[in-house]
Amino acid sequence: MADTAAALDLEELRAFVADVLDVEEEDVTDDADFVKELGVDSLMALEVMVVLEKKYSVKLREQEMKEITCLRNVHDLLASKLGK
Amino acid sequence: MTCWPRSWGNEVTATACGPVDGAVEVVDPGSPGKRPARTAVRIDATERVFAGHFPGFPVLPGMCVVECAHRGALATLPEPGEAWALMAVESSRFTGPVLPGDLLTCEITWSREDGAWRCRVAAATPRGPAALVRLRYARDGGPRPAPEAPRGFQTPGAPSAPPGNPAHRVAITASALKRLLPHRYPMLLVDRVTELVPGERATGWKAVSGNEPWYEGLPDKATDQDHHYPWTVLVESWCQVAAVLATRDRPNPDVLSGQVMLLGGITDARPARPVAPGDLVEHRARLTRRVGDTFVFEGESRAGGEAVLTVGRMVMTTRPAADLTAAAPAGGE
């Protein structure tokens, strides 16, 4: 339910993703590539997906996992989900 | 709110029991904020877990790597004292195998936060990184949140519970477990599975006994605290119930061929109260998500009607056995 979900804030999302990936917050720039620059593997990508679903009370489809490539894309993906 | 005096963790001494036989040595006690502490432990081929993890292909269980990180953390805690105990494995991620003969080193970076000590442990072998573990310690284990009510499970005694002694409910027996899991003594840590809903959840039992090998070296003067079940072994036991759920449709008890189930990581695992010989532990694992051959689980463990452990998230995946065997040094034992 949207009313129980956390509001989408880019800086909060940055801190949250940095925590899940166990990297420094400043390394998670808007466009830093999760795989190439932050060392994210398929397992971590799935973890990010699961924790985002829980935090924002959204359901992501398997193919949407491919969009989890950088913070900007994650933000846009969540924004489109929460906007519905 | 319940506080456990001298809870799990701080009682790990030279005589305390655990799944790792090798002694963790402090190489550099470090200095918080300046330089990390360093520890090392030689993982000999004689480590008892290797016999059952796995037969024909010895590889150190991920939770034993966490055990080494935990012991290194206790040995280098910047504020020594009796009262510090483990509050949580905030995260652990396994990135490379630890094999017989390896020198497992830990680089431990401490930080003080909200009255607790946290550390980030980078564990490595000469081949490269093995794991990244974050642990949290507080005095007396810190305040513990009231355990959440379990979801999706029948509470024993609830009106909807099936009649009869629940001990007689066996979904998967001991012999059937050996056809599903590659683990063997002393690392087959689930005795029976009592409920299994494919793709959803599983419940399994682990009867804790003073006859388990972890207790072998305990001297007669060992205290009750010294007999607390190693929590890393308890987490591994919970993971095996989850593994049954993951492998049920495609069992592979042979680790030398086909696909091998691997522990990817555990996040937010919290001890709630110590487990001791005589406890019957009920593990509950729920499948949160599956994508391809990667599974995400969550759950908890209970004993005597109380929560003993909660697991926020566990990731398990499969890899071709050849990838693992290729990591073993050529010509090695």
From TrEMBL, chain A:
<dbReference type="InterPro" id="IPR009081">
    <property type="entry name" value="PP-bd_ACP"/>
</dbReference>
<dbReference type="Pfam" id="PF00550">
    <property type="entry name" value="PP-binding"/>
</dbReference>
<protein>
    <recommendedName>
        <fullName>Carrier domain-containing protein</fullName>
    </recommendedName>
</protein>
<dbReference type="InterPro" id="IPR036736">
    <property type="entry name" value="ACP-like_sf"/>
</dbReference>
<feature type="domain" description="Carrier">
    <location>
        <begin position="7"/>
        <end position="82"/>
    </location>
</feature>
